[in-house]
Amino acid sequence: MTSDDQFFFDFLASVPHDVKRYSAEVAESIDRNVDYAATVIKDALTVYFPHVISFGSRDLPALRRPPPRSVSERAYDWVMRHRAWTAAIAAFFGTGAVLYLGSRSFNNRKRRARRAGNGARKEIVVIAGSPHEPMTRAIAEDLERRGFIVYVVVQSVEEEHTIQMQNRSDIRALHLDLTTAPPTPSEIHPALHGIYSLISQPQSPAPGIQPHTCQLSGLIILPSLNYPTGPVPTITASNWADTINTRLLSPILITQLFIPLLTHRNQSNSIVFLYPSISASLSAPYAGPEVAVTRALSGFATSLRQELRLLQFSNGASCNTDIVEMKLGNIDLGPHFRVPQVAGTEVLAWSHHHRSLYGPSYLSSVEQRPVASTGPNAVRGSPARVLHNAVFDSIAPSRKSVFGRKTRRKAVVYVGRGSRSYGIIGEWIPTSLVGWMLGQGNLPQSSSESGNSSETGWERL
């Protein structure tokens, strides 16, 4: 056998090995491509149908859904993307929290009168109100408990005896006769020399104790809150004169007498005018005396406030006496101060002509009052604590602002349920709608149509 034959036989022997190797490579290539195509199709279907086809072990990481992020992580990302908004929101809520906590601490603080260095009482408050009025007694007792020396203006021996019956050493009667006046308005009234000596000369509580000088911190003007009601023709001239003298003229004269004492040392003090505001705000019908007196008293207080702000002393200092108007709403002073109210019976004192002319509309307006329909014990006003805190804040020394400047007291303070809301209603709501609220749209039939039945109704009343 030649060499060519040997080469041919060797070539034929290697052919099966080459075919086997090439076929294996082709098969492996086909398997790889088929597996890759199957994986791509499965991953694509998994994205669109996640609940039908579950992820396999050979899922591509790029096509997997990211895990859900927590709320804190999303909030952190938002804060990092909006840093300016975050700073503004933090400043807004931080300032609000500081103001809220500051107001709570201010309202919850202990309100006590200042004492002298030797521990004695040194702040004096004068209340110009009748001792028979429940609110006068309540305010006097509260201020005495807070550490003030309280003087209550009395006009008769009976009122002075009422003050003495309270058995409070620091609630004293001040008999002030308004019919006698000093030679000139700027001089001290003879009845006020005792208070003048307390605020101008050092006082020693006992021998061996360091003397101190008292301070007149405030004058509280509190006229009677009970006014005659009814149509103007049914109110007698004596009632008008008594209302004007006791609730308007007397407060003005008392204020005039105390201004020299309040401006004597130019210390921080105030004059507080307390008066009911609901009827005056609504200009309620059949409440002419109350509306006339309260609005006149408010006008006097406003004029006096402007006058004292223009006052200049010899050293160039301005006057530190503030005028505060305290508009009262419904206030619950407690069961021992509550006075039963009877509404509508005053119609019996009218003449037949006035009863037939004004009776139906007057009784209709009375029925709109909650006290008349539900009784005095069913109507609850603001607690007495609100009134006492407001009175103390009105006579307490002025506080300094954030910038260190002394702020004046509020010119108008609303105290009691309904005082602010009825003020807004009377100022902004149309008069016709206010009249409908007061019952002017629900009037019964006139007496001319009812005939003798109305007269029978008056007799039954």
UniProtKB/TrEMBL annotation:
Xref: Pfam families: DUF1776
Spans traversing the lipid bilayer: 84-102
Database matches in Gene3D superfamilies: NAD(P)-binding Rossmann-like Domain
Origin: domain of life: Eukaryota
Keywords: Membrane, Transmembrane, Transmembrane helix
InterPro entries in the record: DUF1776_fun, NAD(P)-bd_dom_sf
UniProt name for this protein: DUF1776-domain-containing protein
Organism: Talaromyces atroroseus
